[in-house]
Amino acid sequence: MERKHVLTIAGSDSGGGAGIQADLKVFSALGTYGMSVITAVTAQNTLGVTAIQEIDSQVVQLQLDAVFSDIRVDAVKIGMVSNHGIMDVIAQSIQRYQPPHVVIDPVMIAKSGDSLLQEDSIAALQNALLPMATIITPNLPEAEVLLGCKITSILEMRQAVKELAGKMNTQVLLKGGHLDGDAVDILSTGREFSSPRIDTPHTHGTGCSLSSAIAAYLALGEPIEIAIAKAKEYVFQAICHAFPIGKGHSPIHHFYQWDQGGRKAWD
Ligand SMILES: Nc1ncnc2c1ncn2[C@@H]1O[C@H](COP(=O)(O)OP(=O)(O)O)[C@@H](O)[C@H]1O
Ligand SMILES: Cc1ncc(COP(=O)(O)OP(=O)(O)O)c(N)n1
Question: Residue limits of the Pyridoxamine kinase/Phosphomethylpyrimidine kinase domain (predicted)?
C-alpha cells in the first residue's frame, strides 16, 4: 500500500512526551510518514515548562512552503500555536495548499499548568485557525475558554459539544480526560467514545497523541468516527503501557505494540 504522509504543526517538547515529538512518534507507530513544522521550542520535562521560544512567523512560513511545495500531505495535525502572527501564516497556508484533513488540538495550557498560548491570541485562534479544521479536539478547560462557561459533568459535555460545533462551525471532539469516572470523549454528532479511566499519573501528551492518531487514521482513509475510535484505543493502550521517565508525569508509551508478546523495552 502507498505510504501516507502526515504533517504536524506544533511546538517542540524537549522531554519528548508531548508536542512535535509525541506527534512524530504516533505517526511512526501507526505506519505513516511524519513531517513537522515547528512553531515554538519549549524547555520542558515531566515536571513542567521552564521556557518558550516562539519561532519567527516567516520561518514558520518557510517550513510550511518547504513541506507543501515538495511532498504530498494526506493529513495535518495542528497543536501548540502560541501567537496570532503564526496562526495567520498557518491559516493562509491551509487555504493555499488545501490538505484533505486538518485536525486542530487548540492547545492552551499544559497539564503542568503552564500556559502555551498568549492570552491576546485566543480570538485569533477562534477566528483565523479553528475555521480551517475538519475537526477540533479541545479538552475541558479549553472548551470552557472557547464557550465562556464551566463544564462539570457528562451531561454538560453533551450540551457543550453541540454549542461549540455551532459556534465554531466545525466538528468537535470534546475530550473528557479531566473529569472523574470513565474517560468519555463526545463527538458533536452525539457519538460517545468511552474507556475505563486508568489510575495513573503518567498521562503527559495524551491530548497531542489523540489528535495525531486521528490525523494519521484519517490519512489512512478511515471515516471520522472510525478514526476517532481507533485513535482512542491507541491512546488507551499507550496509557496502560506507560513506564516511568523522569520525576513527574511520564509520557505514554507510543510504541507499546513493540513490547507485546515480548520483552519490555525498558527491562
Ligand atoms: N487516566 C486516563 N485513563 C484513560 N483515558 C484517559 C485518561 N486521561 C485521559 N484519557 C484520554 O486521553 C485523551 C486525551 O484527553 P485529555 O487528557 O482530556 O486531553 P489533554 O491531554 O488535551 O488535556 C482522551 O481520549 C481522554 O479520554
Ligand atoms: C509543546 C507542547 N505542546 C502541547 C502540549 C500539551 O500537551 P497535551 O497532550 O495536552 O499533554 P499535557 O502536556 O497537557 O500532559 C505540551 N505540553 N507541549
Answer: 13-253
- Cα(174) to centroid of ligand 1, in Å? 10
Torsion, Cα of 145, 147, 149, 152 (10° steps): -90
Residues with CB under 6 Å of ligand 2 are 10-11, 13, 18-19, 42, 44, 79-80, 107, 110-111, 116, 204-208
Query: In a 3-state reduction of DSSP, which class is residue 186?
Result: strand
For the chain, the domains span: 5-243
Cell of 260: 507485546
In contact, 32 and 219? CB cutoff 8 Å: yes
Does the interface predicted TM-score (ipTM) exceed 0.95?
Answer: yes
Q: What is the CATH number of domain 5-243?
A: 3.40.1190.20
pLDDT digits (tens, 9 = 90+) for 20-30: 999 999 999 99
